[in-house]
Amino acid sequence: MAALLGLAELESGLRELAARVRAAGIGGVRMFIVGGAALRLGYFDRPATFDIDARIEPKAVLAPFIADIAVERGWPLDWLNDDAAKFIPGYGKTVEWVRLHDDATISIWLAPADALLAMKLKAMEGRRGRDERDVAYLLAINGIRRSEDAEELLEEFFPGDALNEAAAGRLERIFAAGLPEIEPVRGSALDL
């Protein structure tokens, strides 16, 4: 079974990666984190995740460091990967990334809560039962209390897209159950 990464593991993995990048004299590394890791690192206490989904620049340079950390810690080789990068909104509303860490060596950014909600709404269309809790928390964080407003946000990031019938039904059930109270995990900084 794959290792689950909680907040401590996410932070220590990123710290270790930054330390190795610094030691190698590499600069200009950028990561744009989305998905469950972004939610856990910056927005709310949620169950552990299997990986960090991110747009990684430059991926080829970081791949050996990522693999070494995985082997040493007994983590999956794809504990930090760019599989979800293709789902980052790119043709609608501009994603205003939130700084987690930024220096000459490495900068790490989290997707903002509104973009994460749009992405989770899209994901909810095909992944029954996997995203509803995250969507409920993101609706609360974004102050969205009606399905119409959630669909409007989705349209802002993904023009021309609308929720399919199944996802719209799931969204209605989330609102019917009531949105959770939230306490943010932290501000938006991580000391690396």
Would you write up a description of this structure?
With 192 residues, the protein is α/β, with parallel strands linked by helices. It has two domains: 7-111, no CATH class; 114-177, no CATH class. It has helices at 7-23, 35-42, 59-73, 113-124, 132-142, 147-157, 165-177, and strands at residues 29-34, 52-57, 80-81, 98-102, 106-110. A five-stranded mixed sheet has the order 3-2-1-5-4. A hairpin with a 3-residue loop joins strand 4 (98-102) and strand 5 (106-110). It is elongated. The model has no long low-confidence stretch (mean pLDDT 92).
What is the count of distinct domains? 2
Strand order of the largest sheet: 3-2-1-5-4
Alpha-beta classification: alpha/beta
Given as residue ranges, the uncertain stretches (5+ residues, pLDDT < 50) are: none
Q: Could you tell me the radius of gyration in angstroms?
A: 17 Å
Largest beta-sheet characterization: 5 strands, mixed
In whole angstroms, the N-to-C terminal distance is: 29 Å
Amount of beta strand: 5-15%
Share of helix among residues?
A: 40-55%
N-to-C SSE series?
HEHEHEEEHHHH
Number of beta strands: 5
Shape: elongated
